[in-house]
């Protein structure tokens, strides 16, 4: 057994800062890390974005042996491995999608005890052979991610996860840690029992997500409301959930026709299509996805800035998990729910089809809770946390429509009296739709049937549109002035409060804001737009846009999603604090030593160039902002210190693309190549991605280094690839060539081939 003394605080904090680039732990991370160092089993429930990966990655770095990570989706493992590698962790995966070369390389690294993290899928534990091989290695501990997949009670049950109960039996001396964001106690118990965890260290983090803003708005004219919302979130990435495939497609088409860059996603699409959409989303190529709830699990994209529910979710748990996909990076993000009572009927039809009475009642109860959440007038955060058994004690959360809009009330006693009197005169036996028809003087069959056109209240609300009256009614419900005894069959009844208002003993106040309502009277779609006032720290949008471009460029060369290069939070901090030199940049959130070495100089160059061109803006920001506090223990960077960028700009311009800190990394690749290593071996040895190594080769070649084509291609293959490039003219663009090959050429090989084709073409032209 390990003892905690082996890992002192100094080591832990310095790893946190030098590898991950973080100044402090998020809640519970440190206690979990320490439990792992003590050799204990761990069971941790932390919300999405809580930072579960770090809990096992940090110990994996320091402990002897490999940490075996079980993760449910092979399709997303590459992202996880790339993200770890970009932080400089030695990570690899063994699954069916990797090349034989890479598999060999990972095998070698494992045997030589050089790997820190091995990502695998659960079904591996069905293989005796795999288990026996694993036993020959030093395994530091197991980390089971998305552990709720082992429970049939959970919503993501995967039979493959059942094989994981073998781990404790087969590896009795190795600690097992399990992580999930699923909160129900039933699932939690189930996980512990099925995995056979031994007196585990238990952690249950708060489910509060302080950077998420919750808002509920009446669904009136959804299409227009969505467009208004998206217009306000230009350039940002987000998810719009709809509750049927048909609606997903309709909404995606509608938005596309208005020029928004959106893609649909639902379970009816082919695996390949779904994968493509997921990837485009991760890589910021398609910022907005319209999806059913089939979309989201395992997508670690950290810069999702909004999640919209365009239909009522069927329960609070689902709503919470889906909204939770916003703002993992800790930066502000918005969660908007469009609530329309028409959705209730649709849910009820599904619920009524549930055969087992017990299950049906549970589903009904959950739907009721969801409706109450949407229509109530209390802090949304308090209500959500209450659902998870947590109390939130602050008076004003400053992060939901109720708390923020509280200031903006207006008196509406007379409209309220009109509504209440309509309810009274119809014997408290109708729902909102009919009452609005009465108030606005509609001529419907129901009105004629009940002779409601003779009521004194008929048409007294003609001067206002229908949606205004819906808003008044909803506000009256929220303030419990009218009651609905059964949320699933909403007949409106008067309470004592209602009588006080009817008798003019009390006034009625309601929220003024009608966010995202198309303004009908002016014939145009405007909305009263309110930016949530909570914790939004300003940053220079101009610089941010520049940095984002650079990030995309790096992401493209490395073939990883941009948020893996640097999170939004990191770029926001750069555009807030304007770091001008190495030391300042290292204080920015998320700039660990590895990322610093790979990208630091280029980011500094962009910032410095921006500063020189925009001295006024720079001064304003530099004067206003102080760099965030340094890490708890000051850490000397183990890297040789690089020239400061301000002095760099005075150096004579180097003509070769091999200037800057990157040259040594290119040369290292070159050296290994000349030792006869294959690309896959270099990938594993250097713990970089294939895309990075290929980009090194590109740079080396551009700078005139000789790279032998024979290492990569037999002449016939290169000739074939040349044909595909030719099919699209002599442009040497990748996409047309890959498309022309009809699946026989992938992007990486095309890029590799282009290095040599470029040369031969320029030779041809001479
Ligand atoms: P989870 O798996 O719990 O949903 P992740 O492990 O994906 O969360 O982490 C979410 C985000 O939080 C990532 O972008 C990660 O880099 C960031 N993060 C993790 N730990 C910290 C920390 N101590 N300080 C700042 N950011 C952190
Ligand atoms: Mg995770």
Return Rg in Å: 29 Å
Q: Beta fraction of the residues?
A: 5-15%
CATH homology group of the largest domain: P-loop containing nucleotide triphosphate hydrolases
Discrete helix count: 34
Catalogue the ligands: adenosine-5'-diphosphate, magnesium ion
Kindly, what is the distance between the CA atoms of the first and last residues, rounded to a whole number of angstroms? Answer: 68 Å
Q: For this structure, what is the CATH class of the largest domain?
A: Alpha Beta
Helix content: 40-55%
Produce the secondary structure layout:
Layout (H helix, E strand, L loop, with lengths): L8 H12 L8 H9 L4 E4 L6 H11 L3 E5 L3 H13 L4 E3 L6 H12 L5 E4 L7 H8 L3 E6 L21 H5 L5 E5 L4 H11 L5 E4 L7 E7 L3 H11 L4 E5 L3 H13 L4 E4 L5 H12 L5 E4 L12 E6 L6 H8 L9 E7 L2 H11 L4 H19 L4 H8 L13 H5 L3 E3 L1 H13 L6 H8 L5 H6 L15 H13 L3 E3 L7 E3 L1 H7 L6 E3 L29 H18 L3 H4 L2 H10 L4 H5 L6 H21 L1 H10 L20 H4 L14 H12 L4 H8 L3 H13 L12 H12 L7 H7 L6 H19 L1
Parallel strand pairs: 1-6, 1-7, 2-4, 2-5, 3-4, 5-6, 8-13, 9-11, 9-12, 10-11, 12-13
Antiparallel strand pairs: 14-17, 15-16
Helix pairs in contact: 1-3, 2-3, 5-30, 13-14, 17-18, 17-21, 18-20, 22-24, 22-26, 26-27, 29-31, 31-34, 32-33, 33-34
The protein binds adenosine-5'-diphosphate (ADP) and magnesium ion (MG).
Describe the protein's architecture and organization:
With 766 residues, the chain is of the alpha/beta class. Helix content is 47%, strand content 10%. It is built from 34 helices and 17 strands. The N and C termini lie far apart (68 Å). It binds adenosine-5'-diphosphate and magnesium ion. Magnesium ion binds next to helix 3.
